[in-house]
Write a structure and sequence with these properties.
single chain; mainly beta; four-stranded antiparallel β-sheet; three-stranded antiparallel β-sheet; 7 strands; 51% strand
Length: 93
């Protein structure tokens, strides 16, 4: 499993509860986790359901947009540019 956590200083609402992307190659799923004060919101998508992965790079940080075959969009903000590139590489085949 690979864990990626957004930067707390990215200015995208991540100061207290940063977005997380977890890539589980054994289970073949990607998980977007948005922690909250109590609990968290998780979105889990199978690799086969991923239609596209886009990286929107800014000066210091990058946003990741994962689009599913069903048309759903998962947006995770505030990752380092290197982490965003690695996530895209792991999910693109």
């Amino acid at each position: 499993m690979k864990y990626f956590t957004a930067s707390r200083i990215s200015g995208d609402g991540n100061a207290v509860f940063p977005d997380e992307i977890i890539i589980d190659e054994d289970e073949e799923v990607v998980i977007h986790r948005k922690p909250k004060l109590i609990g968290s919101k998780e979105t889990k998508v199978r690799f086969g359901a991923v239609a596209s992965v886009q990286v929107d790079k800014h000066v210091l940080f990058a946003d990741i947009v994962i689009e599913t075959r069903g048309g759903r969009e998962i947006v995770a903000k505030g990752f380092t540019r290197d982490d965003a590139d690695e996530i895209k590489e792991l999910l693109s085949w």
